[in-house]
C-alpha cells in the first residue's frame, strides 16, 4: 500500500521528493479522539485532522444523520430549485452568527468561501453604483494572512513561502502590518494596536475609494504559524471599516465553530462583519461544505427584476448538497446538546496551563493562542532569537507520532489544534507526549 501511495498519490502542501523517502502513516479508521492506522496503531488526533474535527471520529449521531439523508437523496441542485437541509441549515447559521448576517451562500471549501466573498464584495459596489465606485477593485489585507489556495484567495493572502511563486497571476492588494505582538517591535498590546490601526487609517484616508473590503482572519492568523492578535484589534478594524465605508470580511474558516473558545471569533471581540466565511468545522469535520454569509444590505444590492441584471454569477455544482448540509445541522445539534462551548472553556484553560508550564525551558519561545488553537514556538537553546532547526522540529514531531500523538508543525511552531470535544485527560495525555518528545529529542541534541 505504501508503494501504491508513492506511485499514484500527489499529496497537498507536500514536497513529494522528501515524502517519497519516508514510510507514511496510512489511516484506516477513527474513534472519538483517536486515529488508527492500517497496523492498528492508535494516534491521538492533536490536529483535528487539519483543524476540522469537532465531536470525534466515527460519531454515531453524525453517521446516522448522514445515513438518514442518504436514504432520501444524496444530491440535487440549488440552481433554480431548493432542498430541505440547505434551507434548515441556512436558517440555523443566520441564528447563531452575528446579527448583521442574514443570507447564506453555499460552496464546498474554505478557499471557495473566500473567493465568493471577494467577488460578492467587488460586485456589491458595482451593483450599487458603477460610476461612483469604478475605482473600487482592491482589498485591504494583513501581512502573513492565509485565505486558501485558489487564485483569488491567494491574491488576498500574505505568506511569501506559499504565494510568491504566483505573483504574476494574482491581482493587486494592499497589505498592512501583522498584528501579532511577538512578531513585532512593540512592547505592549496598546502600542501594537495603535501603530497598526494608524497604518490602516492612513491607507484608508488616501485610498478608501479603491478599496472594496478588508479581509481578515479574526483573532488568530492560522496557517502562518498561529499568530494571535489582541482581541481589541478586531474591534478597531471594524470601527475603521465603518468610518471609511469599506466592507469587513472575516475569514472564520479556521476560527469558526468553537475553535477559539466562542462559537465564532467575532463574538469575543463583539464584532459584526458584513461578510463571514465558514468551512472547516461546519460539518463537524465530516464532509466538505463551506458558506459565505452576508448582510441584507449586501444581498439587496444584487436584486433586480431581470435575470441578467445585477445577478451574482457564481456557483458550484455541489452548492448546498443535502448530505453535507445534514451533517452540518447535526453538528449544530450536538454543539447544543453536549454544551461543547462550556467544555472547551475547561479544556482550553488546561491546555494553556500545560503549555505555559514549558515556558521556563531554554528552547521554548513564545506560547500563544485562544480556545483549542495554540502554538508553541521552539528556539535554539541560549540564543532564543533564532528558530530551532526544522530538522530538529521534525524529529520532535516524529517522536510524538511514534508515541501515539498526531501533531503538526508550521516551521518552528508546534501547533495544538485538537479534536474539539477531547476530554481533559486526553488533553493532558497530548501535552505529556509532546513534553516527553521534546525532552527526549532536545536532550539528545544538546548531548
Ligand atoms: C483552511 C483555511 C482556508 C482554506 O480552506 P480550504 O477548505 O482548505 O480551501 C481559508 N482560510 C483559512 C483561515 C483557513 O484556515
TrEMBL record:
Membrane-crossing segments per the record: none
The protein's Enzyme Commission number: 2.6.1.62
Subcellular location: Cytoplasm
An annotated GO BP: biotin biosynthetic process
Molecular-function GO term, any one: pyridoxal phosphate binding
A Pfam family hit: Aminotran_3
Domain of life (superkingdom): Bacteria
Catalytic reaction list: (8S)-8-amino-7-oxononanoate + S-adenosyl-L-methionine = S-adenosyl-4-methylsulfanyl-2-oxobutanoate + (7R,8S)-7,8-diammoniononanoate
Annotated residues for binding of substrate: 146, 280, 315, 408
Broad class of the protein's primary localization: cytoplasm
Obligatory cofactor(s): pyridoxal 5'-phosphate
Site (Participates in the substrate recognition with KAPA and in a stacking interaction with the adenine ring of SAM): 13
UniProt-listed PROSITE patterns: AA_TRANSFER_CLASS_3 (PS00600)
Pathway membership, UniProt: Cofactor biosynthesis; biotin biosynthesis; 7,8-diaminononanoate from 8-amino-7-oxononanoate (SAM route): step 1/1
Entry-annotated residues carrying N6-(pyridoxal phosphate)lysine: 280
Entry keyword Lipoprotein: no
GO annotation, cellular component aspect: cytoplasm
Described function: Catalyzes the transfer of the alpha-amino group from S-adenosyl-L-methionine (SAM) to 7-keto-8-aminopelargonic acid (KAPA) to form 7,8-diaminopelargonic acid (DAPA). It is the only aminotransferase known to utilize SAM as an amino donor.
Record text on subunit structure and interactions: Homodimer.
Entry's family note: Belongs to the class-III pyridoxal-phosphate-dependent aminotransferase family. BioA subfamily.
Protein name, as recorded: Adenosylmethionine-8-amino-7-oxononanoate aminotransferase
Protein source organism: Staphylococcus carnosus (strain TM300)
Gene that produces this protein: bioA
Amino acid at each position: 500500500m505504501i508503494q501504491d501511495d508513492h506511485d499514484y498519490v500527489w499529496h497537498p502542501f507536500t514536497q513529494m521528493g522528501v515524502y517519497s523517502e519516508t514510510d507514511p502513516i496510512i489511516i484506516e479508521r477513527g474513534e472519538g479522539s483517536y486515529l488508527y492506522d492500517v497496523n492498528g496503531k492508535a494516534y491521538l488526533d492533536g490536529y483535528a485532522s487539519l483543524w476540522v474535527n469537532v465531536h470525534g471520529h466515527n460519531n454515531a449521531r453524525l453517521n446516522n444523520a448522514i445515513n438518514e439523508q442518504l436514504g432520501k437523496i444524496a444530491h440535487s441542485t440549488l440552481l433554480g430549485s431548493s432542498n430541505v437541509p440547505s434551507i434548515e441549515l441556512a436558517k440555523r447559521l443566520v441564528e447563531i452568527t452575528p446579527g448583521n448576517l442574514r443570507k447564506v451562500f453555499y460552496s464546498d471549501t474554505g478557499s471557495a468561501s473566500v473567493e465568493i466573498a471577494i467577488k460578492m464584495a467587488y460586485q456589491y459596489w458595482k451593483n450599487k453604483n458603477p460610476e461612483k465606485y469604478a475605482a473600487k477593485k482592491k482589498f485591504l489585507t494583513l501581512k502573513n494572512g492565509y485565505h486558501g489556495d485558489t487564485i483569488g484567495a491567494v491574491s488576498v493572502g500574505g505568506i511569501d513561502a506559499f504565494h510568491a511563486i504566483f505573483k504574476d497571476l494574482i491581482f493587486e492588494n494592499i497589505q498592512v502590518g501583522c498584528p501579532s505582538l511577538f512578531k513585532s517591535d512593540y512592547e505592549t498590546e496598546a502600542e501594537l494596536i495603535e501603530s497598526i490601526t494608524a497604518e490602516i487609517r492612513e491607507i484608508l484616508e488616501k485610498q478608501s475609494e479603491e478599496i472594496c473590503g478588508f479581509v481578515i482572519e479574526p483573532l488568530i492568523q492560522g496557517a502562518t504559524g498561529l499568530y494571535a492578535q489582541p482581541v481589541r484589534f478586531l474591534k478597531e478594524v471594524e470601527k475603521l471599516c465603518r468610518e471609511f465605508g469599506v466592507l469587513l470580511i472575516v475569514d472564520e474558516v479556521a476560527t469558526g465553530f468553537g475553535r477559539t473558545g466562542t462559537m465564532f471569533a467575532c463574538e469575543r471581540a463583539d464584532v459584526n462583519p458584513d461578510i463571514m466565511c465558514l468551512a472547516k468545522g461546519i460539518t463537524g469535520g465530516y464532509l466538505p461544505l463551506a458558506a459565505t454569509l452576508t448582510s441584507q444590505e449586501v444581498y439587496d444590492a444584487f436584486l433586480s427584476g431581470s435575470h441578467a441584471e445585477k445577478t451574482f454569477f457564481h456557483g458550484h455544482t455541489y452548492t448546498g448538497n443535502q448530505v453535507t448540509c445534514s451533517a452540518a445541522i447535526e453538528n449544530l445539534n450536538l454543539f447544543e446538546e453536549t454544551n461543547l462551548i462550556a467544555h472547551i472553556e475547561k479544556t482550553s484553560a488546561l491546555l494553556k496551563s500545560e503549555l505555559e508550564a514549558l515556558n521556563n525551558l531554554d528552547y521554548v519561545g513564545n506560547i500563544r493562542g485562544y480556545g483549542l488553537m495554540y502554538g508553541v514556538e521552539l528556539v535554539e537553546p541560549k540564543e532564543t532569537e533564532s528558530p530551532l532547526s526544522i530538522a530538529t522540529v521534525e524529529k520532535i514531531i516524529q517522536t510524538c507520532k511514534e508515541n501515539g500523538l498526531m501533531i503538526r508543525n508550521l516551521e518552528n511552531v508546534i501547533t495544538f489544534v485538537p479534536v474539539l470535544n477531547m476530554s481533559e485527560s486526553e488533553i493532558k495525555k497530548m501535552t505529556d507526549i509532546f513534553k516527553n518528545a521534546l525532552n527526549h529529542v532536545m536532550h539528545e541534541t544538546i548531548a
